[in-house]
Amino acid sequence: MTSRRLLATSTDKTMRRLLLPLMLLLTALAPAAAQTTPADVLGRDDIRLLGAGLRVTPARQVVPKDIASIVSTFLQAPTLPDSPLPPFAPDAVVRGTLRGPGFAKPVEITTRPNTPFNLPPFSVAGLYTLDGIRLESGGEVLLYGAPESVTIEVIEKLLVTQV
User: Helix, strand, coil shares of the chain as percentages rounded to 5?
Assistant: First the structure.
C-alpha cells in the first residue's frame, strides 16, 4: 500500500470512531429537546376548517327569447352543533360574467349572497354563458361557484304547433 492510501484509510477509521458516539449522543438527546413544559408554550388555539361552498343552479337552462330568467346562488356550510357559522362581510358580493350573441362585449353582473342573478330578457337566440361565478369581499375572491359556469340556451319560441 502506498503511504497516501494508508493515511486516508487510518483517517477514515478515526473519523468513524469519533462520529459514531457523537451520533448516538445526539439521537439520545433529541427526544428530550423536543419535549416542552407548559411554561414553554406561548399560546394554543384550535383552527376550524369549514366546508363552505357556493352552489349555483341550474347548471343549464333553456329560455325563450325576450323572457327574463334567474340563476340561483346559495352559500352552503356544515351545521355546527356548538356555534353558528360566522357571517360574511357586509361588502360580500357574488359576481359573474355574462357572454353570448346578444352582447358586443362581456357584461359583468352582480348579486348579493343567497340571492339569484337576475338575467335580462335576451333578444337574440343562441347560447349564452354566465362564467367566473365567485363570491368576493374587499376585491378578493373568497369562494368559486360550483359550477363556476352555467349555460343559458335562448330559443326562438317555447312551443311550436302546426295543424
Answer: 20, 35, 45
CB 131 within 8 A of CB 152: no
pTM above 0.90, yes or no: no
Q: How far apart are the first and last CA of the chain?
A: 111
**Closest to 117 in 3D by CA, of 76, 71, 81, 161:** 71
Give the separation between CA 131 and CA 124, rounded to whole angstroms. Answer: 19
Count the neighbouring beta carbons within 10 Å of the beta carbon of residue 145: 24
d(CA 92, CA 133): 13
Q: What angle do CA 41, 44, 45 make, to 5 degrees?
A: 175
Q: What is the pLDDT of residues 69-120, one digit of tens each?
A: 999 999 887 666 566 666 678 899 999 999 999 999 999 999 999 999 999 9
- Identify whether 58 is preceded by a cis peptide bond (ω within 30 of 0): yes
Q: How many CB atoms lie within 10 A of CB 117?
A: 20
Cβ count within 10 A of residue 119: 21
